Amino acid sequence: MSDPSGGNQVAISSFYPRLPGKTRLPYGQCDRIPWMAADLIGRRVAVILMGGNTAAVRAMLAATQAIPIVFTSGADPGATGLVASLNRPGGNATGVTIASSELGPKKLELLHELVPAAKKIAMLVNPNNRVTLEDDVRSAQEAAPRLGLEMIVVNGGTESEIETAFTAAAQQGAGAVYAGNDTFFSAQRAQIAALALRHKLPTMAGAPDSVRAGQLISYGANDFDMYRQAGVYVGRILRGEKAGDLPVMQPTEFDLAINLKTAKALGVEIPPTLLARADEVIEYVNREGGSDETSPPHILASGSGRCRSPRETGPLA
């Protein structure tokens, strides 16, 4: 990507399926980061924009301390060592983050509101992503007792493991699934949606794309807002500012999405108060207006709800 003002090159490395731009490195191949860094250094890129994977950003930082890096991350970049602190990152990296541990209680609260009869929730985690896994599990387990819930953890680090995880969740009596904050689960959103329907398990995801793929509900930071903020930082760096001097930002917009067709298939009645707060209410329709699961998603409402920061106290209202 060229900077129109000065001809600088911006490298976009997407470990996150929804990030616009050409994917140069397939998901999970962090061992290729040194090769990729050498390639980018040879191309004399001015900035590297990375999305969605803490391990990948850490690997890129180990490979180059010269090229500025702007990241989007679901884990605390201070706790994971990506930056010295959120206010003064230091080094050659900065970006946008929303710690999954802050979103966890809100997501669990929404799932409980949606399926109050479910007293046992299966948390799907990726054992290959230890940093995010630990944050997700800790926050969910701390929030569960307040809601009268029991959490069980099921591992899904591969496609086959995700299938096994849903089978285990159903066998252990889970009434719903909470998908942890992980880019692999976003990439496997269609598989997760199909398994959720097969096992009759309402599933909470982290982004609307998963709901459009057929999962029941999602709550998370607005992707476009996050990438807009990241793009602002790329522009500031291209104009001469240092990445280490730019505080790590946090998103200001959050999305709640619900899939009505999935709710009907699962026999879940959406509370009117929850439906009214949704930013996206999605159903699948054919050209005649009837239900058709092979049709693309039709968004009945967008931006109609009021999503609040997870730092605000009290339930969403």
Describe the protein's architecture and organization.
It is a single chain. The protein has 317 residues and is an alpha/beta fold. The protein folds into two domains: 10-98 and 223-245, 3-Layer(aba) Sandwich (Rossmann fold); 100-221 and 254-302, Rossmann fold (3-Layer(aba) Sandwich). The chain contains eleven helices and twelve strands. It has helices at 33-43, 54-63, 100-114, 130-143, 159-171, 183-187, 189-198, 208-212, 223-238, 260-266, 272-277; strands spanning 10-14, 47-51, 69-73, 93-97, 120-125, 150-155, 176-179, 203-205, 217-221, 254-259, 280-284, 297-302. The strands form two sheets. The protein has an eight-stranded mixed β-sheet with strand order 6-5-7-8-9-10-11-12, with helices on both faces. The chain has a four-stranded parallel β-sheet with strand order 1-2-3-4, sandwiched between helices. Strand 1 (10-14), helix 1 (33-43) and strand 2 form a beta-alpha-beta unit. Helix 3 packs across helix 4. The longest helix has 16 residues, at 223-238. The protein starts with 9 loop residues before the first strand and ends in a 15-residue tail after the last strand.
